[in-house]
Amino acid sequence: MSKNRSIMGGLSTLIILGVSGFLVWKYALNSPQNMGEAQQGASDLWGKARDTDWGEVLDGLDGLDFGSFFDQDPKLGDNTTYSWHKDHVEPNNGGLHLTLVNVLTDDWQQEFDDAIADWKESPALTLTTERGEVDSACTRKDGVMIVCNNNFGETGWVGINENEIVNGMIISSVSKMNEYYLNNAEYDHRRYTMCHEVGHGFGLPHTDENPYNANLGNCLDYTDDPSENLHPGQVNFDKLDGMYLAGRRTLRRVESDGRVIETHYLLADNSILRTLDENE
Q: Contact at 8 Å (CB) between 98 and 85?
């Protein structure tokens, strides 16, 4: 009898190990077909575990002064406007054509979809979205805007945007949502933060930096009551028009000696900024 129990115990252990191994193979390692794929799956799994901060988060933002979270915004007081590199801007009023890579966790998809739908209302923007694997490291990629979330800790900011600027033009952008504050926050706080940081990713500055005055009705306006500033406003769309549409003209002429002269005009604040490119 003791021998039979030992055999049954051994078989049970083998079954449990077999089932566990199958689940790891299929779901954790993405069903690798060879040792190389298994090693890559294990590496990806370890990377996700390493990059994700599973520390404590706030229960919510009730009782906290939402307006105070803008004090640590690196863009505070700097309303310099940067546009995306000309490779992403179609000539002759074609506007900005940009891909946003969504590497957010599942619980952020609604806020992302709602905010992007709002920004697509701008005539100056042609936006494409791609769903990537969750990347809590928020890895930057040239030519696109990465939108991500992670627990960045008690930083003082609920969200942040980081644009990479080369020669005065944006070449990449990362918009980060801070789970430490937003994981258990109400929808309005999360939606406002998403709209705000993505707006910076297009190159937009703040419309107002006093969170305690009357709300202006747009998500680039600092506020202590985000429910009134959930969406982009006409002021934001007008600014985008000026950056990527309004007054932007490309004229080309051929000189008598065969040279092609291409002139780019950009109207800004009733003045003309003129650049001249000559191609022999």
A: no
